[in-house]
Amino acid sequence: MNTHVKPGIWRRTGNARTAFLYLLPSVILFSVFVFYPMFRTIYLSFFLTNQNGEAALHVGFENFAYLLESSAFLNSMKATVLFVLYTVPIGIIIALFFALLANEKLKGIGFFRTVYSSTMGISVAASSVIWLFLFHPSVGVFNRVLSVLNFPQIQWLLDPEWALISVSISTIWMNTGFSFLILLGGLQNIDEHLYESSRIDGAGYFYRLRRITIPMLSPTLFFIITISLINAFQSFGQIDILTKGGPSQSTNLIVYSIYREAFINYQFGTASAQAVILFIIILIVTILQFKFGERKVHYQ
Amino acid sequence: MTISLPKKIWIYFLLTVTSLLVFFPVLYAFMISFMTGPEILQGKFFPQSFSLDNYFKVFDRLPLVKYLVNSFVVSVGVMFGQLLVCSLAAYAFVFMPFKGRDFIFFVFISTMMIPWEATMIPNFFTIQKLDWLNTYQGLTIPFFALAFGTFLLRQHFKTIPKELHEASQIAGLSRFAFFWRVILPVSKTSLVTLGAYGFLTTWNMYLWPLLITTNSSVRTVQIGLKQLQSQEMSTDWGVVMAGVIVVIIPTLLLLFLGQKQLQKGLSQGALK
User: Fold this and answer.
1) Domain with CATH 1.10.3720.10 in chain A
2) Distance between CA atoms of B190 and B265, rounded to whole angstroms?
3) Is the pLDDT of residue B233 over 60?
4) DSSP symbol at A291
5) Mutate to test the interface with A, among B3, B9, B11, B15 (most CBs of A within 10 A)
6) Consecutive 10-residue averages of pLDDT for chain A (300 residues)
7) Which tens digits make up the pLDDT trace of B123-152?
């Protein structure tokens, strides 16, 4: 150590050097398992690959061109967008409704809070298996209810018209627990005094909801909308167990499509191109959210 | 604040109905797990008897104990790995001012925008090259660094009074001693939140174990469920549901015990 020669620089960088040691584990792990594979994915998306996932033939943007012309991929994109539209708004509205109910100060409310958040403790795989049974054409509960009511039976997961809707219903159920927990936390952070003064003015429940609760909750809502959107684009487990992308590709969401292309068809180049598209979509969603969402958000 | 009686009744009514709807699938799965084949076909809700036959069968047909142990080892491993790696990083971000700190923090946060699924192909090959397929380290180490966790702990470390830091320096505590003996103990609540979150998400992980476990040596329960479901399809739903119940009990318990804590911690991390 040459502390005596250059005390200034050595001491001034002391913090940085120690800090680097503390940051090192994260830096290494992020480099190896996030940044390197991200660049590698982008790199591979310009190549045709061999079975070991190594770049074999440079094809420029042809993978992307191929995808944008492939009806299978366009169909997968369409299914993904529909799935996001089906699950995110309804899921958040339901979770918000639960959170508003569970925020009332009543006896035994803790029990209801636990029930509402329970789906967060149930894995995607377990939930999917349960829903697979609920959707079962003959012994499933939905068709039993329909038959009791004298309605025609629905082939929930087997009918291309219904499969995506069925998967969406089960996904909404799986996600309400987490959204509920976050929204309840947000509601509990709202200052009580705001309500008290409005109560004196004699404002009704819905007026207070619109004028106080929703604006004060907007940062939390903003957060949960972003997270839900990103989660929806990343859905995989429910597809793998409920439908395997079928029937006739109607539930082949993008992550499932990447998985199949890479690990079943061994087309790592086009799979990487799809992964790049997924990355870009999530990037755009996040940026749009921050650009337009942020303006409408009211921070305390 | 007082709520009028009719309004109270109305709220309790809504709470009860919606809770039943939310909990119905789990409750029904629980009931099915005690039923025999014919009972399920008849579409009953309550089993004739609460016999544990299906539970014995499911442990018989799958190496479920092994899968449970695997899941437990992996989840606890990720939990402690995340706590250590994230708290070290958060400590540096809060207590060591250095040039470029904000930039590095931004780089950390930017990893949140990269979906894991977009990087899984190269990650799979990395694990293969390291010869980590079918190993615990392959299932755990890639998840140790977590931007969300670093962020959450940083928010909490920031609330620790600076005087504590100065006092520790006067007392001659080394930086690491300060971190280990002062910072970590006073941040217990955040650490518990992050720990519960890490355990829960790892226990429930699906895609990664599906990719890198090709035999039952370190396979987790989630993949076990998939196996069970594809083996038993249409034949024995009682056994399948017994498997489901066994798999969800640990996380449900954890959630029931730590619901309040988790909610507080997560919404704090979300907002500040």
Assistant:
1) 69-296
2) 6
3) no
4) I
5) B15
6) 56 78 94 95 92 85 92 94 96 95 89 91 93 90 89 89 95 94 87 74 77 84 87 93 89 94 92 94 85 64
7) 999 999 999 999 999 999 999 999 989 988
Joined together, the tokens standing for residue A164 give 């995506």
Interface test with B, best of A20, A29, A148 (most B CBs within 10 A): A29
Band the pLDDT of B26: cuts 50, 70, 90.
very high
Cβ-defined contact of B270 to A185 (cutoff 8 Å): yes
ipTM of the complex: 0.88
The sign of the torsion formed by the CA atoms of B231, A239, B37, B241 equals positive
pLDDT of residue A4: 52
Residue B270 pLDDT exceeds 60: no
Residues of A in contact with B29 (CB under 8 A): 130, 133
The three state secondary structure string of B126-168 is: HHHHCCCCCCHHHHHHHHCCCHHHHHHHHHHHHCCCHHHHHHH
Q: What is the pLDDT of residue A6?
A: 55
Backbone angles phi, psi at A48, to 5 degrees: -95, 145
Q: Which CATH code for domain A69-296?
A: 1.10.3720.10
Q: Which of residues 40-99 of A touch B (CB under 8 A)?
A: 40-41, 44, 52-53, 97-98
Give the model's pLDDT for residue B260. Answer: 74
Of B22, B107, B125, the CB nearest to A116: B22
Domain ranges of chain B: 53-271
Partners of A30 on chain B (C-beta within 8 Å) are 107-108, 111, 145
Please give the single-letter amino acid code of residue B56.
F
> What is the DSSP code string of A262-275?
HHTS--HHHHHHHH
Which among A36, A53, A185 has CB closest to B267? A185
For B53-271, CATH number?
1.10.3720.10
Single-letter code of the amino acid located at A122:
I
Q: How wide is the angle at C-alpha A124 spanned by C-alphas A118 and A126, nearest 5°?
A: 80
Q: Is B271 on the interface with A (CB under 8 A)?
A: yes
Nearest to B118 among A38, A53, A240 (CB): A38
Interface of B with A in 143-202 (CB under 8 A): 144-145, 150, 175, 200
